[in-house]
Design brief:
- The chain has 277 residues and is mainly beta.
- Strands 3-2-1-4-5 form a 5-stranded antiparallel sheet, with no helix packed on it. Strands 8-7-6-9-10 form a 5-stranded antiparallel sheet, with no helix packed on it. Strands 11-12-13-15-14 form a 5-stranded mixed β-barrel.
- Helix 1 crosses helix 3.
């Protein structure tokens, strides 16, 4: 069976002026063309060669000896070459660029952007890319709690947090409680592993441990109070959603920061407000 989107070893079963036809074995009716420009001198019927199958610009099944940057079910970082009315086109190492449909984008992309994508077959058996890579990422990473990792944000969720492809291939999440200030799809982050779930997915944090992060958070909160003319219109009992929106911090991190400022004698809580002293 000829498998589009995958590398296969096929046999040369027929030579023609414009290339050679390949099949799984001699006698098979299902064949695919390897164009003449990719046929090496000396190749002949009976030889087996490794090829990748995809559709050319005329939507015909075609074989190539080039190595694509992506195969079915795998993930890779590809560069956006162009954006058109039907979606973005990505450079994946083949003559025909790879379509990333608008409905498979987790954020708008522009020429020159790099994004983590997976390869899939659509309902018409055409090859397309998707930025919704959650089902394709590996869960058997070598990382353990407190390891430092590098990853790329591929999707943001108001309910869960920032989804990260660690090493562009392992499944990770910066939970919403950790804060997502400044993060966007495509952001490259350095994070600390805070947990490894039973299924192998990684929980991540881009913040230091609480006792190391507290002073930095306190200064950030103080700066924001000053931007509010010295009075925040709420106290440390405010909802986590408001804290996330205004500071990008978890409620616990916010309360620790306010507590540090109070201990330093720089703010007070009075009448439902946090005031600069």
């Amino acid at each position: 069976m000829l498998l589009i989107g995958e590398k296969q070893e096929l046999e040369i079963v027929k030579e023609v002026a414009f290339g050679v036809y390949l099949a799984e074995q001699a006698g098979d009716k299902e064949t695919v063309l390897l164009p003449k420009k990719e046929v090496e001198a000396g190749m002949k019927c009976g030889d087996r060669i490794s090829v990748f199958l995809y559709r050319d610009s005329s939507d015909r099944l075609i074989a190539t000896r080039r190595k694509p940057l992506l195969t079915i079910g795998k993930t890779s970082v590809l560069k956006v070459k162009d954006v058109t009315k039907i979606g973005a086109f990505l450079d994946w190492g083949l003559e025909k660029d790879l379509l990333l449909p608008f409905h498979e984008q987790t954020a708008k992309v522009y020429p020159g952007d790099e994004c983590v994508v997976a390869l899939y077959r659509d309902k018409s058996s055409r090859l397309c890319a998707t930025m919704k890579v959650y089902p394709y990422l590996s869960k058997n990473s070598p990382y353990r709690v407190e390891d430092q990792v590098r990853g790329r944000v591929y999707e943001l969720s108001d309910n869960f947090g920032a989804f990260v492809a660690v090493d562009d291939c392992y499944s990770g999440l910066i939970p919403k409680r950790e804060g997502m200030a400044g993060l966007k799809v495509g952001s490259i982050v350095r994070a600390r592993v805070t947990g490894v779930k039973e299924d192998g997915k990684l929980d991540l944090s881009i913040r230091d441990k609480a006792y190391l992060q507290m002073d930095e958070d306190a200064e950030y909160v103080m700066q924001t109070i000053e931007e509010y003319d010295g009075v925040l219109p709420f106290d440390d009992k405010v909802s986590p959603d408001i804290i996330q929106r205004e500071f990008g911090l978890s409620k616990s991190a916010f309360k620790r920061a306010v507590g540090r400022l109070m201990k330093q004698g720089r703010v007070e809580i009075r009448n439902g407000h946090i005031r600069k002293l």
